[in-house]
Amino acid sequence: MLYLASALENYNIQAVDGELGKVKDLYFDDNKWTIRYLVADTRKWLPGKKVVVSPSGVEMINTEEKVIHVKNKKEDIRDNATLEEKQEFSYDKEVELSDTFGWKQYWSGEFLWGGYLTPLDPMEEPVRTAEPAGTEEPPINDNVHGSNHKLRSIENIKGEFQHGVVHGDNGKIGYIKDILIDDETWRIRYFIVDTSEWSTNVRVLISPDWLQSIDWVDKDFYIDLKLESIEEGPNYEKDREVTKELEEKIYEKYRKEPYWK
To answer: PRC-barrel domain spans which residues (predicted)?
Structure first.
């Protein structure tokens, strides 16, 4: 199952003893393209502050009631997982959060979540020496992302007013309208790219694994696909379920190596 980033922003974050607030933003790392923190809107009780929660601190997500349940108490999160509104994460702060709440140190280990495949793998489970068949992620292009990750805001690259622009081999393809997130790993699986200004194919799915380069200042994302290929490729209908059949068509059309192989 894939979550829409915009849909998650309507969810409430519920601690074991009360509501923290709605999801305001999602922070991802630009190395492995995975959501690392949910940001709660706490302006009513913590003005000028932001509260963050790791997906490894999530107990369950109720999609019917639009509630994300976390494992900790509201006061503990408020006292220990709060940053200034414009404050960026430091390595020391991430280590501190991990030590305080038992959140997985995703940066320490060879897998997507450090020594684990998903944020909800039991902590007592031994570190895997090899990933089971069918779960391996595609290699990261270090020439694009570099060896060190940086946490970035989903809100800064998707939407009507702030968005990344996707460029192909022969010009602009479209802008990032929304993002699809894997519900088990929290990896960003696809950008939903609005191509209506440049193509009759109104929306398409583009994987971040296909990116060749990124200009984070101007929010320009470059891939090695031509506009003609996008024009002929599978269209993504709004709110459509992303089935394996659709994914196979996309990867086949764009001649990309499927991530599930």
So the answer is: 5-76, 165-224
Nearest 10 degrees: CA dihedral of 226, 229, 234, 236? 20
Residue ranges of domains in the chain, CATH in brackets: 1-156 (3.90.50.10), 157-254 (2.30.30.240)
Q: What is the pTM of this model?
A: 0.88
